[in-house]
Amino acid sequence: MPELSRRRALTAAAALTAAAGAQPALAPSARAAHGSPAGFDEVYKGRRIQGRPAAGGHHHHGSGYAVFVDGVELHVMRNADGSWISVVSHYDPVPTPRAAARAAVDELQGAPLLPFPAN
């Protein structure tokens, strides 16, 4: 394995500094594109659906948004394109967490939502 020379160390430090300097310029637009939607609380087809921003992200996907159907958490995830999916309607992306909750109620057809086991 080659020795770490002073030149390589300085080159790596310069590259890291440049990358760190570029990050703040990119962060505001990324936040705007992936900002957390407003909360909601409504009755849809006789089921109470709720959604709100969640502190600290959600499980390992980090969507930062919690959705509930009749008080039971509906696991939702935000896709890279900004669409949302849930464990109930995983292959049908929708534009908002509210739409994901409504799609889950439609799919459940009156059946209760069972809690999703955490890893």
Automatic annotation (TrEMBL):
<dbReference type="Pfam" id="PF06236">
    <property type="entry name" value="MelC1"/>
</dbReference>
<keyword id="KW-0186">Copper</keyword>
<protein>
    <submittedName>
        <fullName>Tyrosinase cofactor</fullName>
    </submittedName>
</protein>
<comment type="similarity">
    <text>Belongs to the melC1 family.</text>
</comment>
<dbReference type="InterPro" id="IPR006311">
    <property type="entry name" value="TAT_signal"/>
</dbReference>
<keyword id="KW-0732">Signal</keyword>
<dbReference type="InterPro" id="IPR023199">
    <property type="entry name" value="GriE/MELC1_sf"/>
</dbReference>
<feature type="signal peptide">
    <location>
        <begin position="1"/>
        <end position="27"/>
    </location>
</feature>
<dbReference type="InterPro" id="IPR010928">
    <property type="entry name" value="MelC1"/>
</dbReference>
<feature type="region of interest" description="Disordered">
    <location>
        <begin position="43"/>
        <end position="62"/>
    </location>
</feature>
